[in-house]
Write a structure and sequence with these properties.
116 residues; alpha+beta; two-stranded antiparallel sheet; 2 helices; 17% helix; 22% strand; globular
Length: 116
């Protein structure tokens, strides 16, 4: 999938790819999920779930809509250990609406590893 600016997507830190009834198979690196509406992105983030958008401006506006306090931007966190291929640039930048880390979901944006 190629994300498009101006759109929102579900975001799953770990995605279950196994079919129902099969052994559990979870993969990382498949975080960006299906396309969702801006309204659903608002509802998801308000409920503590993570969302993604390509454009930083869209992420910032959604964070402001969730909480009028200044959104806190964080760069991509480093992984606890490098990926099997040795990469450490595997995470995304994100906003915390109103600077509240535990009340809302993350609003991820940009390219993987950008500004690491």
């Amino acid at each position: 999938m190629v994300p498009q600016a101006g759109y929102f997507y579900e975001f799953h830190k770990d995605r279950v790819i196994s079919r129902p009834g099969q052994p559990l198979d979870i993969r990382v690196g498949l975080e960006i999920g299906p396309l969702i509406t801006r309204e659903r992105a608002f509802q998801e983030a308000k409920a503590g779930k993570d969302v993604y958008t390509l454009a930083k401006d869209d992420a910032y506006k959604l964070a402001l809509q969730l909480n009028p306090g200044k959104p806190v931007q964080e760069g991509p966190h480093g992984p606890s250990k490098a990926s099997p291929t040795g990469r450490e640039d595997v995470y995304f930048q994100h906003f915390h609406p109103g600077g509240l880390h535990d009340r809302f979901g993350h609003i991820f944006f940009g390219q993987r590893g950008e500004n690491i």
